[in-house]
Design goal:
The complex is a heterodimer of chains A (110) and B (116).
Chain A (H helix, E strand, L loop, with lengths): L8 E4 L5 E6 L10 E6 L6 E4 L13 E6 L2 E6 L8 E9 L4 E4 L3 E5 L1
Parallel strand pairs in A: 1-9
Antiparallel strand pairs in A: 2-6, 3-4, 3-7, 5-6, 7-8, 7-9
Chain B lengths: L2 E5 L3 E2 L5 E8 L9 E7 L6 E7 L4 E3 L7 E6 L4 E6 L8 E7 L5 E2 L3 E5 L2
Parallel strand pairs in B: 2-11
Antiparallel strand pairs in B: 1-3, 3-8, 4-5, 4-9, 5-6, 7-8, 9-10, 9-11
The chains are: A mainly beta (110), B mainly beta (116).
């Protein structure tokens, strides 16, 4: 059972905008930054968003993050087939928790 | 360019101790602010954070696994080592090491199977 709660699945058609939610608590999301990772099949996770809404160099601006209170969201606009992957949210949890992850959301591009 | 590579046994027997090494380049764990962490992923399941070590040798552990984990660094070799005691089949997973406070760079991972 993961500390952060994500929907197990999401889907959309090419060109659509999809959002993935991540729910936590005051001791993790509510008081610390949120990160999002993309994991393509058979590969290591890749950082998509850090500090709630910052994109590392090379990540397309189709990906955006937001946070409100104890929840966060990842939005993907202009959905592409190559976006089909698992997406994970993560946040630092106040002591003694350390890093906590969501259970992951499998995104299917129909 | 930062790269990280995990190495260690692919098969471990139950009750044994697992030792994994993360060898990195493009960063130094003697530089202020730098950290390296370990995360694992059982087959078909979610990511789970294990441990983190900072440049100043501060260490943090997952509360649920703290009693079984030890993380150390060898700055001269550019390595971070994770040991996990009393391995069990439920510890079968791909183990990743990753850089930084947001895990911005990951190794490719190493699959460890726990079986007699």
């Amino acid at each position: 059972q993961s500390v952060l709660t994500q929907p197990p699945s999401a889907s959309g058609t090419p060109g659509q905008r999809v959002t993935i939610s991540c729910s936590g608590s005051s001791s993790n999301i509510g008081s610390n930054y949120v990160c999002w990772y993309q994991q393509l099949p058979g590969t290591a996770p890749k950082l998509l968003i850090y500090r709630n809404n910052q994109r590392p160099s090379g990540v397309p601006d189709r990906f955006s993050g937001s946070k409100s209170g104890t929840s966060a969201s990842l939005a993907i606009s202009g959905l592409r087939s190559e976006d089909e992957a698992d997406y994970y949210c993560a946040a630092w949890g106040d002591s003694p928790s350390g890093w906590v992850f969501g259970g992951g959301t499998k995104l299917t591009v129909l | 360019q930062i790269t990280l590579t995990e190495s260690g046994p692919t098969l471990v027997q139950p009750t044994q101790t697992l030792t994994l090494t993360c060898t990195f380049s493009g960063l130094s764990l003697s530089t202020s602010g730098v950290s390296v962490g370990w995360i694992r992923q059982p087959p078909g399941k979610a990511l789970e954070w294990l441990a983190l070590i900072y440049w100043d040798d501060d260490k943090r552990y997952s509360p649920s696994l703290k009693s079984r984990l030890t993380i150390t660094k060898d700055t001269s070799k550019n390595q971070v080592v994770l040991t996990m005691t009393n391995m069990d089949p439920v510890d079968t997973a791909t183990y990743y090491c990753a850089h930084g406070s947001a895990f911005d760079i990951w190794g490719q991972g190493t699959l460890v199977t726990v079986s007699a």
